[in-house]
């Protein structure tokens, strides 16, 4: 399943082509990131542990596994069959599905939380509102959404040469406004400066479905 937009096929193919190498690169991706772990912990505290939570664009599954350790009933969805296969092998007790976050096979008002951990970054700007609308559709009222992305540091939305496939940096205020138009209200935000090996500032938006 590759969703409604043609750009998704290119994204899926690009990640399939580098799946093993990418999984090795990110497998310990939270170890030296205390602010990122704290943001995920805040998401977990805001999200009822009794309801289902989806990590959308889960890749090889390391963030879903972390959310599971935090006590959430989480499953992962990703466009790339190769990455889903790797996630299932590494975390056999968790559920991972091939799918697209712009057209989820989930009933309205089913999920209590969604994490999009650097997965909206590949959505062309004109397409992103549709993703946010889909997130709102599947969340219960009061459900939580965590968006992690590359922040444009006050500039406009900007494409950049991501190592796998074209990605976009967003001004955090613009992204918060788009989420508001899709039916979310902001709980809080974190901006993290890049580490020595990183190029761009990281943004995290924690939101609630109205």
TrEMBL record:
CDD domains (alphabetical): AdoMet_MTases (cd02440)
Top-level lineage group: Bacteria
Pfam families cross-referenced by the UniProt entry: Methyltransf_25
Molecular function terms from GO: methyltransferase activity
Sequence ranges assigned to domain Methyltransferase in this UniProt record: 53-143
Annotated keywords: Methyltransferase, Transferase
One GO term of the biological process aspect: methylation
Descriptive protein name: Methyltransferase
The organism of origin for this protein: Saccharomonospora viridis
